[in-house]
Amino acid sequence: MSIDFHKLRAANIARQAEWAGNEQADLAFRTVEVADEAGELLGAIKKVARAQRGIAGSTLSLQDVADEMGDTVISLDLLAIELGFELGAPESNPMSSLPLLSQALMLDSVVGDLSASVVELLAVRSMVKPQEVEEVQRVYENLQRAIFWVMCLAVALGIGLETAVTAKFNKTSVKYEMATRL
Question: Count of CB atoms within 10 A of residue 180's CB?
Fold first, then answer.
């Protein structure tokens, strides 16, 4: 269940060196990237829930959800790199008794909090205020909470998160003809 965050970090740094235009990816871009990937994950979970509940409309497989989980974790690490943070496994066990869609809503809420805390950090940095330490801590806590809820969702759906992250990382590297693999 655990992710080797050190291995992911090394691969992300190596691949970003290959990625054309990466030097334009700043803190605001990385934050929007996380929100986008988490939104895609939530959409995939909704479509799996639709299939499970027999609701008409498009559906997706668990593999599609795993791909979006992989993208979400990769983007969370890229944001952490931008901030100088090391991500790690959550301190509490990533198991939740909440229903699947409630867990998805928790992730959505946390990503909203993460985005808001980054906006606050950017505002504080532009004013050079001493409370930046508080804002940085809030961003870090929200990053860790996001990882926690992605891990809870993986457990609830029976998705091997490290396998999902590795597969999606490598699929993206192949798609964009990059040498770095996880």
Answer: 18
